[in-house]
């Protein structure tokens, strides 16, 4: 997972992307990497080849409704704490938010931990852009899962929910409720954190592929 900040209107906005890799079947190659080509009409990184990802939507990704659902589903506070690294050397985008106290997740009014909210944002944007939904069922919560699993969704169902989440990011939670699964936060690992230089045009954030 890449945590990044995009320079827009003289301020940086938090965002996150996913680097999804799978073992390559071709001799001499280690992995295949998923990337997508943005259209010319895209507001950010137009016509560029990028990893799936996008902006943190605070109303959706920090909603206390996620904590309520996690608790109902059987996600433990300890498993959420395992995602969090408290250190003075953390980049600003991953620094403790709010009180910085993460001992009682299910008693909070919102999700303060960026290690959780940025994962939710990356998973949401990945689903919206490429239709991949990384998730776990209840049985997998207590299992060691070495490879992330994607939900197998019927085509029309997938397209309907991609459109819904695009229109309203808060519907991402409703998708998980309907499927009776939770986002696989634990399959995502931090890779890098960076801020877009102030002089870079937001439509040209990435190097264009050959």
Automatic annotation (TrEMBL):
GO CC, any one term: mitochondrion
Domain of life: Eukaryota
Cofactor section: Mn(2+); Mg(2+)
GO molecular function, one term: metal ion binding
SUPFAM superfamilies: Nudix
InterPro entries, alphabetized: NUDIX_hydrolase-like_dom_sf (IPR015797), NUDT19 (IPR039121)
Ranges in coiled-coil conformation: none
Keywords: Hydrolase, Magnesium, Manganese, Metal-binding
Similarity field: Belongs to the Nudix hydrolase family.
Protein name as annotated: Nucleoside diphosphate-linked moiety X motif 19 isoform X2
Organism: Drosophila hydei
């Amino acid at each position: 997972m890449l945590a990044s900040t995009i320079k827009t209107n003289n301020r940086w906005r938090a965002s996150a992307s996913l680097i999804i890799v799978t073992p390559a079947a071709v001799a001499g190659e280690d992995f295949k990497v998923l990337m997508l080509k943005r259209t010319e009409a895209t507001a950010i990184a137009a016509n560029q080849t990028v990893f799936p990802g996008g902006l943190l939507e605070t109303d959706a990704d920090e909603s206390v409704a996620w904590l309520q659902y996690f608790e109902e589903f059987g996600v433990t506070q300890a498993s959420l704490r395992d995602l969090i690294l408290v250190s003075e050397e953390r980049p600003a985008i991953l620094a403790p938010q709010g009180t910085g106290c993460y001992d009682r997740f299910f008693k909070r009014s919102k999700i303060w931990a960026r290690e959780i909210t940025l994962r939710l944002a990356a998973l949401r944007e990945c689903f919206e852009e490429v239709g991949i939904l990384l998730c776990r069922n209840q049985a997998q919560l207590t299992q060691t899962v070495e490879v992330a699993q994607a939900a197998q969704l019927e085509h029309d169902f997938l397209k309907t929910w991609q459109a819904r989440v695009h229109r309203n990011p808060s519907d991402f939670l409703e998708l998980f409720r309907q499927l009776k699964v939770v986002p696989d936060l634990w399959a995502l690992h931090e890779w890098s954190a960076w801020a877009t230089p102030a002089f870079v045009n937001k439509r040209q954030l990435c190097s264009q592929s050959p």
